[in-house]
Amino acid sequence: MSEDIDPKEESLFDAPLMAEQERMIEAILFATSEPVTLRELESRMPHGCDAGEAMVHLRKRYEGRGVQVVKIGDGYAIRTASDLGFLMQKETVEVRKLSRAAIETLAIIAYHQPVTRAEIEEIRGVSVSRGTVDQLLEMEWIRFGRRKMTPGRPVTFVVTQGFLDHFGLESARDLPGLKELRSAGLLESRPPPGTLPLMGDTEEEDESNEGQSELFED
Amino acid sequence: MSEDIDPKEESLFDAPLMAEQERMIEAILFATSEPVTLRELESRMPHGCDAGEAMVHLRKRYEGRGVQVVKIGDGYAIRTASDLGFLMQKETVEVRKLSRAAIETLAIIAYHQPVTRAEIEEIRGVSVSRGTVDQLLEMEWIRFGRRKMTPGRPVTFVVTQGFLDHFGLESARDLPGLKELRSAGLLESRPPPGTLPLMGDTEEEDESNEGQSELFED
Amino acid sequence: MKRFWAGRGMAESTFEEDAVSVAERLAAEALIIDVDGFEGPLDLLLTLSRTQKVDLRKISVLQLARQYLAFVERAKALRLELAADYLVMAAWLAFLKSRLLLPPDPEEEGPSGEELAAHLAFQLERLQAMRDAAARLMARDQLGRDFFARGQTYEVERVRKVTYTATLLDLMQGYARTRTKDEFRPFVMDRDSVFTMEQALERMRGLIGYAGEWGDLTSFLPEGWDNNPVRRRSATAATFAASLELVKEGHLEMRQSALFAPIQLRKKD
What we know:
The complex is a heterotrimer, with 2 copies of chain A and 1 copy of chain C. By secondary structure, chain A is of the alpha+beta class.
């Protein structure tokens, strides 16, 4: 290379500016789940980058912030500042799939609310275990509604705002009916094991529609 | 410690300093991959905090950096700057390939929401194929909106926060070209003069006129 | 737009009647090869309209109708099966074409040819607009492709709380499952035709006082239960079981002289 080339022009073909490099390692550390070594960083950055120097700048930038760039073994990672760990307790939830019995019970409550325990049992054809109802109550997806004006004045169950939030519904009224589920292809495409395909049982549909609108009238 | 009580010590019982609040929301946003609302942030922060104000500071701080604070619906999240995507091949997740029908259906829901299945069919001129809607539901890009207040009270579809997040939109109002489409009258649901043979379910045809621009009204 | 259609419609009716060009015929042939690739008649119309090389707002619906009809004719000539909705559209376009060509009849009710044509043009324009919008949407930077969420979400070992979750699909399928289960419910007998052993026992206790002599079991059946086989069987079984119970209690004797012979009862002293 010739001696008299302006060093500034050369830099066009060189590594990006250090500020750019700092942005790059910031984005990589953010998006990567495991700590990343300087070598890995450089292998992902454009040719000629100096991840070590960029790291010095980045670590400085995060000093005293809510998150820090920490060194773990040979790698670097972004971690919450240790004094803010108390904010993270909500992140430690273990998410489990709701049992089939609970889902069915919940679905019946959502579609038929307010509904008594006996009515749920009648629809499901099996008795509802106490644990199932307690679990749904505890999750705050269902709550007690008004007592029914029938002998024994049994308590009823209705779904909560928390339920609507979780399932992204504006109201339980917006749940599709059986006919709509079917026409949207939601039933046929992946039938749950052990279920018969839905027959064109219009009587049943009418019944459920009727029941629904009745229940939701206030 | 000195006898005179320092006003700073009193503040221990007040809300933390704004700089501290900014650190807190920074830590929470970094720890969470889903958008977090101001309300959720405040529920996790000490009493008396103003997450909204802290957010203004934090967003400013991250301007031009490798990661950014973005608004998605009601929530906020940190995302890598999109000009740095080329560094991330490793993190790229293979997005399930959507069929042309699914993409069109998604666009129609986004631009016409809340929209019924019959309206989607009218616009596309074909019935919505089985599996298209439930694929979009499963990806959590669409959800059920309010039922239409028209005969049959059909269910409607709207797009979700997950959809906005995926396409980097702050709200459905920011959809590309929305204004032009609206002013060109192309988001209207014009009743056909007489009957055209293109409609899906004839019973649901007449329902398309109301509530169309509900979500987009300013 | 209406005025535009009126002018155009009249002009064409004068000069272009049934003048389907060679190019149009060729285009229709090319499309037929790809008929499976179309998503319904509206999609096909949109594709045909591109041959006009004008803004969709200025498209000639009359010309489009001719192209479409030519397409359907070609398909018929090639003995291709077209789906019913393509034929419905063809019939409608033939109707539209006649409306556009004939001078409007002031007596006639319903929308004019121009109104119908304008609506079809609107539908085509709207479909095209949605396709463009879909393309623009998919061309945006996307999460997980162009920009990224946090790779590592925070984990703390100290607090462990279990939450349960379910998706809307789970919920709806769960509901469908319970509703369709009606068909599987264990068979419940129609109570109208069942005479229970408890009923029979109560009845027999009242009757045995009068049964000093051997009497046929069938004579102890309740009234009105021998008129149909289902009821008779149920009453016989219940009465027999009740009699055995009374024998066990020592109130009754039973005998049967031979296999399948009538069963007889009398009070035991």
